[in-house]
Structure formats: C-alpha cells, structure tokens
Amino acid sequence: MCGIVGFVGKKSFDEKGGVNGAEVVVDGLKRLEYRGYDSWGVAIPGEKKILLHKAVGKIGGFELSSAPELKGTIAIGHTRWATHGGVTEINSHPHLSADKTIAVVHNGIIENYQEMRAKLEKKGVKFRSQTDTEVIPQAIQIELKKTPDFKKAVRNVLNELEGSYAVAIVVEGGKKLIGARKGSPLVFGIGKDGYYLGSDVPAFLKYANKAIFLDDLEMVEADEKGYEIINITTGKKVEKKITKIAWSIEDAEKGGYPHFMIKEMLEQPMVLDKTAATSNVELKKAAAMIKRAKQIWVVACGTALHAGMYGSYIFALNNDINLRPVSAGEFPYFAKFVGKNDLVICVSQSGETADVMEAVKSAHDSGAKVLALVNVMGSSLMRASDYSIVTKAGPEICVLSTKAYLSQVAMFMMLSYELNNKIAAGKKQLKAIKADAEKILVKDSLAKIKKVAKGLARADNIYAIGRGVNYPTSLEACLKIKEVSYIHAEGFAGGDLKHGPIALIAPGTPVLVFVANDGPKGAPFGGAAKEIVSNAMEVKARGAEVIGISYENNQVFDRYFAVGDHGIFTGIVAIIYSQVLSYYIALEKKLDPDKPRNLAKSVTVK
Ligand code: AGP
Fold first, then answer.
1. Which end of the chain is less crowded, N or C, counting CB atoms within 10 A of the terminal residue's CB?
2. Calpha distance 389→414 (Å, rounded)
3. Cα(318)–Cα(302) distance, integer angstroms
4. Distance (Å, whole) CA 127 – CA 356
C-alpha cells in the first residue's frame, strides 16, 4: 500500500550525460502516488552524509527546484500509506540507521518488528519513529558490527524479518543501490541511463521499457557497471528473464484527461477489444483446468469479487458449471472444504491483495490448483498461481477499479465460450458488446448521465437492484458510488427486497434497476427481466425514483439508460452507466475521483 522508487545512474550525475537520481525518483513517486499519499520522502547517499527530504501530504505539488540540494547519482524514494505509526514527518520514509549512514524505504508489514525493536533497544539503539520499517536500517547497522560485508549484513537482517517487504537501500558514500522483496511487489528497470527500482512499472516507464520482475526472497544490487540478482536465503546468483514492457508511458499517465478514472472508463471499449483478442492457447489451458476440476471456487476482494460472482452466473447459465464465489477475507472459514482435485480461481487487478495471496497458499496446501485472472504482469499472484490469464485492462491507476472489472467479467465470458467450444461466437458477441459500450461513452450520452448524476449527488442513500447476473452488477454499481462519492449505496438481489430492504425506500429514494434479458433458456423464473421489473414497480409504489438501466424501456422507469440486448452479458455494458454516474456524482460533490479518502489501490496488508 506504499510506493517505492530507486535509481542508480551509469554515469555520475555531474558528468556530461549524467542523470540526477533525485529527478528520476521524484518523478517516479508522482506516478506511484496512487499507491499511497499520506507522506513522501527521498534519500540521496552523499560522500559525507545521506541527504534526506521528507514531507507529509501528497508529492503531487512538489518541485525539485525548491530543494536544489537534492542531487546525486543514486536516490531512493517512498510515497506512504500509513499502516504502523501516524501520518507524521518522522514516520515518513526513508528511515535511517542511528548513525544515519543507512537509508531504507519499505512497502509491506514487518510482523515481528516489536520483538526486533525490543532486541535492538536492549543493545542501546534509539528509535526515532513508531514505524515497523525503522527496524531494518537499525538492524543493519548493528549487524555490520559482526558482518562487515554490507550485502551479507543486509541479507542476514532480511532473513530475520517476518511478514512482507519490498525495500530499496542505500548507504552513505556508497555507489550501489540495493532492492529486495518478499511478499510485496518490486520491479527492476533496465534503462540506457541507469537502473531503476519501482513498486510498479509506471515508476520508471518514462526511462526504461525493459524490466525484471523480482520474485520473493530475491535481492538485486546495481551500480554504474551493472547488476547482480541473488537469492536472499542462499546468497546464490539467480538468472532472471528480462521482460519488454508493452505499456507506453501514456498508458500509465492521464493522457490529457482530468482524472485517471474517466480516462480508464473511456478505455473500456478498447479493453473489450483486447479481451476478444485473448489468445486461444491461454483460454484453452484455463478451460482445461476448469473441466478437470471437481469443485471450483472463485476467490477475490471488492470489485474483483463482484466480477467473480458475475462469472459464477455466466458459468451456471451458459455452461452448467458451478463456481462458488467466496470473499478472500472469508475464505479461511471454508478452505477446509477445498480438495486436491479442486480449482481455485483468483481474480485480482493488482495481483498483490494480501487476502487473495493467503487464499492461494491455503489452496495449494490443500493440493488444489490455482488459476489467476490477474491484470498486473509479474505480480505476486501471477507468480504464485499454477496458471494465469492476464486480463487486458492495461495499467489501472485510479484507486477505483472500472476497466479492470470489465476486463475480468469479459474474460469469464471468453472462458465460458471456450468451454462450449464456441470461442469464435464469443469473440463476435464481445465485439458487439464493445460497440454498445462505445455508444455510452460519447459526448451526448456522457452529458445525459452527468445531468442525472447532479440530482443523485444530493441523495443520502442510493440503492441498486438486479437479478441473476445483475445482482453482482448491482453490488458493483453501489461499491463504485460509495467509494468515490461517500454516499451510502447498497445493492440487493431483487428477490431479497421484500425480506427487509424495501423498508429503506422512502419518497424520492433513488433506485437503479438493472434489467438483462437473460432469456427463458435455463434462467430461473422464466427469465429475470419480468421479475426485476415487478420489483421496480414495488419500489416505485413507495415513492422511489426509478432509474432503469435496461435493454428495453418501461413505464416504471423515471429515467432510462438504454443498453443493447446481450442476454446474460448485458451487465458488461450496463455497469458502465453506473461507473460514469458515480464519477459525475463525485465531481458534483467536488471530490477527487482518483484519490478517494481512506482507500488505496492495492490492499497488500491483511
Ligand atoms: C475497487 O474499486 C476497490 N477499490 C477494491 O474493492 C478492489 O477491487 C479490491 O481491493 C481488490 O483489489 P485487486 O483486484 O487488486 O485484488
């Protein structure tokens, strides 16, 4: 939930063609701000001392010209999402050893930091902060007394840490940049001017498009001459594949839009196109795992869980296959039922969600196989799974997941068609869905949605109802609304309304009603469309403002947003209306859709 960046130049910064590490790191931190924006800091190992610059708040507005002393060939930086210790300057990273010769930035949680801190304090070490991170530089300084080799001393300390870390380390007068990871992401970038470390690729994509995705317990040491990667436990050299990053930096930047959220929503038709182009090899391999499985679980969090739920309806209705969706945080209660012939499908945009990674471990402990639908190449989930399909959303920077959700549901659709050996038909239908999505994301349509959003911005509560595939659609619609506008919003299955929730409906209460023509074939009640429209009448009778998102209009709707009739896949298009509605509600409330309060892009702690 934090972002770290590091750089070491191939030339000294004050030589011709040299690069100031501080510039690279500050730029990189600004691109990683979505990973946490409570505070930030930069450290530069000078000859005589480590230059340190820290500040509470977002790095967005900081200009390096205001700190001209920040110059150096090596630099590390950190943008923080507080987990241990309040949001204060002293708790912000980088953290130094007592003698200020070692600086560390860290993403993750050191679970045994209290014991380590107590041990170090017994040796007379004075701590400055309340963070878990500070034990790392402090412990390295003590370790150096008995292990003069710096790299070995670092390894010894890292091997003592329990929990998760991605760290970048520099030492006073040092010429090397060290990076290491266990349980938190860290990517090593290879550029013409130097070497980079980043929690995510956007940190250095402007400078380098070749990267090595470090695996757990790997450490890289780089200097102007080159780099070496070793295993932290054994110290042995590790050979790693260099990946060419297909994303352009524009992909990872706003591209002229006011917010990442609107940019990424507008990219959704392209995401559907890219999903339709998923290689048959990937789909066949994943489908084979599904066919072989005795029980199939879908495990995810938040938006990704809603995509998994949607996938379970697709498989039930289109393939007669039972997928059991479970929130990753709740999975431990059911893990004992996972058998060795089962398949656990993990859905995750970041591939770093702690609860999902725990679920992978327990699935493997049961002997089950894990199939990942993951958006970030090289992520922990990708590397921990037996097989991964990379969803085709591209970098999703906004804290709120929109295009990644669409890419996940669309991937379930592709798998469903592959399972029926009808992938060509599936790709054709997805292209039709893409054309429909495009119609929503044009100027006039956006203006109509914005107008409705203005009214909704004054609501205290907003509800959404749907049946079948549109039950997860309703849940996802309401998650977006609450995340970005802080208005209480709740999704219900239409059939649940009369069992309590309808008591919430008062005159003027806005209710989104999602209607899909899931058709008589195989759908319960002869098709959810009729049933959900009658639910709409029930809430209407109690004064609700009914906003229909449907493949056909109905007099029960006070407002109507049209979607094409794509049967059980209609929700893939319908959700776009509620995403855009939530975006404009946030703007109407003068909120920043890219930086919703209390949230971070990737929940890498439990
Ligand atoms: C998305 O809008 C939410 N911010 C959040 O629920 C997110 O979907 C969830 O944390 C899962 O993240 P992941 O897909 O990276 O695993």
1. C
2. 11
3. 24
4. 34
Is 346 annotated in the active site? no
pLDDT score, position 525: 47
Read off the pTM: 0.75
Q: Is the CB of 376 under 6 A from ligand 1?
A: no
Residue 381 CA: nearest ligand 1 atom is 16
Q: What distance in Å separates the CA atoms of residue 428 and residue 434, rounded to the nearest whole number?
A: 10
Is residue 211 within 8 A of residue 242, CB to CB? The reply is yes
Nearest CA owner, ligand 1 atom 7: 302
Measured CA to CA in angstroms, residue 326 lies from 356, 429, 469 at distances of: 11, 28, 16
Active site residue 2: yes
Question: How far apart, in whole angstroms, are the C-alpha atoms of residue 328 and residue 350?
Answer: 14
Phi and psi torsions of 338, nearest 5°: -80, 125
- Quote the mean pLDDT of the chain: 93
Ligand 1 pocket: which of 81, 261, 299, 349 to mutate (most atoms within 8 A of CB): 349
Q: Ligand 1 centroid to 349 CA: how many Å?
A: 7
- Banded pLDDT at 606 (limits 50, 70, 90): confident
Sketch out the chain's domains with CATH numbers: 3-251 (3.60.20.10), 254-439 (3.40.50.10490), 442-600 (3.40.50.10490)
